[in-house]
């Protein structure tokens, strides 16, 4: 029995369409990372109160970061959400936050423009901010 290629063609088309659909639905296959508007943020749980040891990190974040990155790192029209899977530790390690504050960052994931270095923030301040952001990310199920 000889089977022609045209008999397999419908299956190949269906498989190809399914692959394209899945690729289009995945964030890595879309333009979500390069969009100027952040995707809807994953919010920290309101049920869990902020641990006392992170309160200073929250206050420091509010002083230096929230103007652009929003309350609880949810993002604004001026900057991206830090409570987002792009900023999980496996993609943006803690040192990336330290360097961003100390040197600034060229825009590479979002279209908000370059981030300037943050005047007046010390490495120990950034360490406290990182602790706060990582807690928010864990509450949102990012890692």
Question: Care to describe what's here?
Answer:
The protein folds into 2 domains: 5-34; 52-139, Orthogonal Bundle (Cytochrome Bc1 Complex, Chain D, domain 2), CATH 1.10.760.10. Mean pLDDT is 78; it is low at 11-42. It is built from 5 helices and no strands. Helix 2 (55-64) packs across helix 5. It is globular, with a radius of gyration of 21 Å. Helix content is 43%, strand content 0%.
In short:
The protein has about 140 residues and is mainly α. It has helices spanning about 5-25, 55-65, 65-70, 95-105, 125-140. It has 2 domains: about 5-35; about 50-140, Orthogonal Bundle (Cytochrome Bc1 Complex, Chain D, domain 2), CATH 1.10.760.10.
Features of this protein?
single chain, 143 residues, Cytochrome Bc1 Complex, Chain D, domain 2, 2 domains, 5 helices, 43% helix, 0% strand, globular
Radius of gyration: 21 Å
CATH architect. name of the largest domain: Orthogonal Bundle
Beta-strand fraction estimate: under 5%
Q: How many domains?
A: 2
- Find the CATH topology of the largest domain: Cytochrome Bc1 Complex, Chain D, domain 2
- Shape verdict: globular
Distance between the termini: 54 Å
What sequence of helices (H) and strands (E) makes up the elements?
Answer: HHHHH
The largest sheet, given as strand count, sense and whether it forms a barrel, is: none
Rounded average pLDDT: 78
Q: Any chance you could write out the topology, listing elements then pairs?
A:
Blueprint: H1 5-25, H2 55-64, H3 66-69, H4 94-103, H5 123-139
